[in-house]
Amino acid sequence: MTKALTKTDFNFKGQQSVYHGKVRDVYNLGDRLVMVATDRISAFDVVLPEGIPYKGQMLNQIAAKFLDATTDICPNWKLATPDPMVTVGVMCEGFPIEMIVRGYLCGSAWRAYKSGVREICGVKLPEGMRENQKFDSPIITPTTKAEIGEHDADISKEEILARGLATPEEYALLEKYTLALFERGTEIAAKRGLILVDTKYEFGKHNGQIYLMDEIHTPDSSRYFYSEGYQEKFLKGEPQKQLSKEFVREWLMDNGFSGKAGQQVPEMTPAIVESISNRYIELYEHITGETFVKEDTSDIADRIEKNIEAYL
Question: Where would a tag sit more exposed on the chain, N or C end, judged by fewer CB atoms within 10 A?
Fold first, then answer.
């Protein structure tokens, strides 16, 4: 029986605090952070009751590959990956915003557009657009970084500057990095027969310099379409074949759960859990172009602890 890691409780030398996020557990060692990508899965801002075997390994390895592939664009927080589910990085003071960049009109932006909205986060949208249509050039639609249990809220560049969440110079660099990273992600995706539709980046400061933090271009933080058939489906108004966590949300909605008060998460049977794990493996192999190698899951926490302590 394949096991999933849903909880960690480590105590490393020099540890000052630990933060348990929806999916990641972050251990603060003062000058460094140890980020463990667990097998927890969240949707609609709710952590689902069952972990997904190998999910943490996949997300951590995808993010590590893309962090390594973008160091020429901007510095990032990663120092090492001592375990397939772990990244150790420099401590950054994060900006309280997420830089969301969209190459296509879909998801929440499409839902807003369909309801008559023509301006998102201060970005004006032209009339007559259709679902999944490519923008003339990518648009940046930032959100605030919400506290646990709250939803992220759209925010404009003007509001970010007015509230002092970043200086004009800092925000100009955040925009520059965001567009350059998205362009690189788009190029890499194209080589894999994929379209990078939209994604989010998080940035922070380390020694006064802006660094890229957290994950990058994973199926949890990004949406991908398959290039093949995109144009045909778009012209016919058909749903695009996509690589993202959307299939989990769709399964939940089909079973009466969309995160609203009073709703119950449907039962996650072993078959459902296995099917989600298999989909994530498919995502990994498409995005990286490499075969996924499953790590030993007999005692994941013990393996992680030994690997981190050996690195530290």
Answer: N
d(CA 35, CA 78): 10
User: Residues 165-190: what's their mean pLDDT?
Assistant: 97
The pLDDT confidence band at residue 146, using thresholds 50, 70 and 90, is low
The tens digit of pLDDT for each residue in 17-75 reads 999 999 999 999 998 999 999 999 998 889 999 999 999 999 999 999 999 999 999 99
| Residue 228 identity (one-letter amino acid) | E
CA angle 126, 131, 135 (to 5 degrees): 45
What mean pLDDT comes out for the span 97-122? 95
Rg (CA), the chain: 19
Paired with 143 in beta bridges are 98, 154
Model confidence, pTM: 0.91
How far apart are alpha carbons 174 and 186 in whole angstroms?
18
- Using one digit for the tens of pLDDT, what is the confidence trace for 92-105? 999 999 999 999 99
pLDDT grade, residue 151 (50/70/90)? low
CA 214 – CA 72 distance, rounded (Å): 17
SS3 content of the chain, % helix, strand, coil (to 5): 30, 25, 40
Helix (H, G, I), strand (E, B) or coil at 66: helix
Q: Which helix (H) or strand (E) covers residue 246, if one does?
A: helix 246-254
Beta carbons within 8 Å of 65's beta carbon, 6+ residues apart:
288
Residue corresponding to tokens 């192999």? 285
